[in-house]
């Protein structure tokens, strides 16, 4: 049995929305200390809609496929909807990830959330703390300075 679904292979080989963005409205970075992989998400937001999204990922095939799929899932969507994207939804859209690779999809969820948090903070938009990763009280990854 193949380890990865065709969708994972497709998004790994032809990642969508790869690159960085100048003058992004929100930037989020998530890392995993165990594997050392890092994912960065850039958002362009207009009238509460995610007009554009780019990612840079230094990581494994699953992390790259997860970022690619996640950017496709939130592009053109309202910010509130992007905030609800879970890593399970990303993995499902990829037709599954091996259990040992599920944590790679978590990076996508977290990086998107942190990019939205960055956008909210920059624009003085009120937000509910519970909707975001609790970086100050957590030591499982490498969000520095958030
Ligand atoms: Fe680190 Fe996949 S092994 S994100």
The largest β sheet comes out as:
3 strands, antiparallel
Rg, please?
14 Å
Kindly report the spatial arrangement of strands forming the biggest sheet.
1-2-3
pLDDT < 50 runs, ≥5 residues: none
Helix and strand sequence:
HEEEHHHH
Helix percent band: 25-40%
End-to-end C-alpha gap: 41 Å
The outline comes out as globular
Query: What is the domain total for the residues?
Result: 1
Mean pLDDT: 92
Model description:
This protein has 146 residues and is an alpha+beta fold. It has a single domain (6-145), classed as Sufe protein. Chain: A (Alpha-Beta Complex). The protein contains five helices and three strands; from the N terminus they run H-E-E-E-H-H-H-H. Strand 1 (26-31) and strand 2 form a beta hairpin. Helix 1 (6-13) packs across helix 2 (61-74) and helix 2 (61-74) crosses helix 5. It is globular. The chain starts with 5 loop residues before the first helix and ends in a 24-residue tail after the last helix. FE2/S2 (inorganic) cluster binds at residues 32, 35, 37, 59-60, 62-63, 101, 104, 107.
């Amino acid at each position: 049995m193949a380890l990865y679904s065709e969708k994972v292979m497709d998004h790994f080989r032809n990642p969508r929305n790869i690159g960085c963005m100048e003058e992004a409205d929100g930037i989020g970075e998530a890392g995993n200390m165990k594997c050392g992989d890092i994912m960065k998400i850039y958002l362009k937001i207009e009238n509460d809609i995610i007009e554009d999204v780019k990612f840079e990922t230094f990581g494994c095939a699953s992390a790259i496929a997860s970022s690619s799929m996640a950017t496709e899932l939130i592009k053109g969507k309202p910010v509130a909807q992007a905030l609800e994207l879970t890593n399970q939804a990303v993995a499902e859209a990829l037709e599954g990830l091996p259990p040992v690779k599920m944590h790679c999809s978590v990076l996508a969820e977290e990086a998107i959330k942190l990019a939205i948090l960055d956008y909210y903070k920059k624009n003085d938009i009120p937000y509910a703390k519970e909707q975001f990763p609790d970086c100050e009280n957590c030591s499982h990854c490498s969000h520095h300075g958030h």
